[in-house]
What we know:
Layout: H1 4-18, E1 24-26, H2 33-39, E2 44-50, E3 53-58, E4 61-67, E5 73-78, E6 88-94, E7 97-102, E8 106-110, H3 112-120, H4 126-129, H5 134-141, H6 147-150, H7 162-171, H8 185-205, E9 248-252, E10 255-259
Antiparallel strand pairs: 1-6, 2-3, 3-4, 4-8, 5-7, 6-7, 9-10
The structure holds a DNA duplex.
Amino acid sequence: MPEGHAIHRHARRQRDLLAGRRLRVTSPQGRFAAGAARLDGRRLQTVDARGKHLLYRWEDAEALHVHLGLFGKFTVHRNDPPPPTEGTRLAMSADGVTVYLAGPTICELLDPDAEDALLARLGPDPLVHGRDSGPFAASLSRRRIPIGAALLDQKVVSGIGNVYRAELLFLCGIHPARPANGLRDEEIVALWDRAVTELRAGARSGRIVTVVPAEVGARYRSEIPKGRRLYVYHRTAEPCRRCGMPVAVTEMANRSIWYCPGCQPD
DNA sequence: GGGTGATGCTGAG
DNA sequence: TCAGCCTCACCCC
């Protein structure tokens, strides 16, 4: 159930465990049998993340492209792995480590042209592009759609999902219905900067925690209990943690988005 | 034990 | 715009 921070974590972990090694690659489920056969026995060079996409680079083979979608899941086993489940699309293993992948939206091989096309349709990734908000600003300036919809559009910015879009807009005091191309320069910079900060924190900890610890009576983000880690996401009608006004919910880009009418004026 | 929604996206119409 | 795909935690009985 991943937004970009989790995908970057997977990339880093699997790079640490598997890069530079020759891997046994199979598809227990069979749906990726031909691709797995093509990769089996090859050396994995590295694993890159871009937005919510993973790209595995191999010696003498096309890139493996994985997108987890809503349900995809990796499980990593050291030493004795359990047998793969019926739904295991991909198994990659080397001595002492096995990675299973189940339920992905995408698991395919990409030739260089297809990979270029994929990367070309992804907007800047806060975990790749760093503090420069320029590409994000340029991307927003061309869109009249609401900022709440723009943040979920992976062509505009890649790696943000439904939790981060609501939380980032709250943190920046921006109403989700405001037109993307109507934001002030300083709001765009603040939004991008927040995205970089929050996704980095999420990638470090593996959790999405956006609240300022003191606001919920904690000293560190890591000690905030489940249920108090977010300001607005999934908190319909509950009081805003800052102003007490009931959190509102609406539909945007086919998904629910939560916001505080008090802290995020129209 | 069944039903449902969910941190996502694509492609048909 | 909407159905479809994939899995599982959580809710309610």
